[in-house]
Amino acid sequence: MPCLLRSVTAKLLLCLCLAGGLALIAHAAPAPVNFDPVAETEKLLNTLPAEARAKSDAYFEGGYVIQVWNLVLGLVIAWGLLRFGVPQKLRDIAERRFQGRFLQGVLFLAMFTVVSAIIDLPNDYYVGFIREHRFGLSNLSTGGWIGEQLKGLLVGVIIGSLIGSLLYLAIKRSPDRWWVHASLATPFLMLFLMVLAPVYFLPLFNRYTPLADAKVRDPILAMARANGVPADNVWQFDASKQTKRISANVSGALNTVRISLNDNLLNRCTPAEIQAVMAHELGHYVLNHVYRRVIYFSLLICAGFWFTHWFYGRAVRQWGAAWGLRGITDFAGLPVLMAGFSLFMFLATPISNSITRTAEQEADYYGLNAARQPDGFATTALKLSEYRKLKPGPWEELVFFTHPSGYTRILTAMRWKAEHLDEGVSVKGPTKE
Question: How does pLDDT run across 231-246, given as a tens digit for each residue?
Fold first, then answer.
């Protein structure tokens, strides 16, 4: 009898253990769900009306034409300025007014910047105002747009004339190797401007205030703390006065790091979408994209300076005497330098775009893991399609896109979701929150 009792008890315990184990397995690994990332991506793309998609494609593809047009226009303007002696006259005024080379450069560059802005004004007005309104992306009035342009011109005159004059000092001291010295100074200058921009430049164009809504702010700060971002507040800025675009950033460097999001993001997006966007921006900081971009773009600019030096030599040998240029140290040769650098950067567009796009895709992956909001990330990509082509060809995306396309981003989110279904991620589509 005792043996029989022990046998029954052992079998009962074995059954209980098996039942408990099966329950744990059932809880940890639910029944497989038929979730196809590609099909889910197409389903989300199809939620966008055909008219909206066609409008987005037209806007973005028009940008290709504008890039070529701006290059050609810039080259024509440079030739016209030299042909009619405009920079030569500005150089003579600067040299009569000041004896010191640095102050001559500051005055020349300030005058040249203003003259160039006036010449470019019709093109800038069409591209930055008329076209933006035509596609429903701008909220600026004509007066507001002019005010923005004047602020930008003021900043450009101050910063451009000081930095440009230092560049001409380098050219004067080493006419054959100036591009080496300028290249070595470039990363330090870029970092310096990144430190200054959040504190002094950006508030000139938008009003920054602390984000008061704790329901939005606290999850962002929690993600920041969890990911080692040294920020104790979140700022919002009034971009809606200028545009309908949603955006956010973690800007600055050293002790000027600032987490910011615009009011369009707050007003147009759900909490899940906001968290997805902010996790992406935090990813840029954690992955040191600012400093990596400084390195990569400094190398690219170095190549650009060398090309510009070579281009200037060829152009001046051909037309320098007719234009009355004294050599590469001559302030009046600035349009030639600008033409050479613009041509190089245009030809290097696939490289510069790929540098930026790669960093953006890395931040996409980081943001998905930090926020765990694949649906929010996907629907945000749909909102961004208002001004970015949603599904380009592979070569088109490689050459022209500074960010992954909407299709790439949604597919990335759906693939992440498919791999995390057993961790409690909803298999239902995105819902309104």
Answer: 888 999 999 999 999 9
DSSP secondary structure string for all residues of 391-429:
S--HHHHHHH-SS--HHHHHHHHHHHHHHTGGGT---SP
Rounded Cα gap, residues 398 and 245, in angstroms? 23
* Distance separating alpha carbons of residues 355 and 192, to the nearest angstrom: 21
Beta-carbon count within 10 A of 219 CB: 17
Give the separation between CA 221 and CA 214, rounded to whole angstroms.
10
User: Which residue has tokens 């069409």?
Assistant: 126
Q: Note the pLDDT tens digit of each residue in 132-141.
A: 999 999 999 9
Question: Could you give phi then psi for residue 424, rounded to 5 degrees?
Answer: 95, 5
Query: DSSP readout, 247-300?
Result: -EEEE-SGGG-EEEEEHHHHHHS-HHHHHHHHHHHHHHHHTTHHHHHHHHHHHH
Q: What is the pLDDT of residue 266?
A: 95
**Whose CA is closest to 107, among 48, 66, 157, 175?**
157
Is-above-0.90 flag for pTM? no
Angle (CA) 75 77 83, round 5°? 105
What is the average pLDDT across 239-258? Answer: 86
All residues at 6 or more sequence positions from 182 whose CB lies less than 8 Å from its CB, including other chains = 167, 170, 305
Give the three-class secondary structure for 49.
Answer: coil
Residue 325 near residue 78 (C-beta atoms within 8 A): no
Nearest CA among 151, 144, 188 for reference residue 166:
188
pLDDT bucket at 253, cuts 50 / 70 / 90: low
Element of type H or E holding 210: strand 208-210
CB of 161 closer than 8 Å to CB of 110 = yes
Give residue 392's region: left, alpha or beta (phi > 0; psi -120 to 50): beta
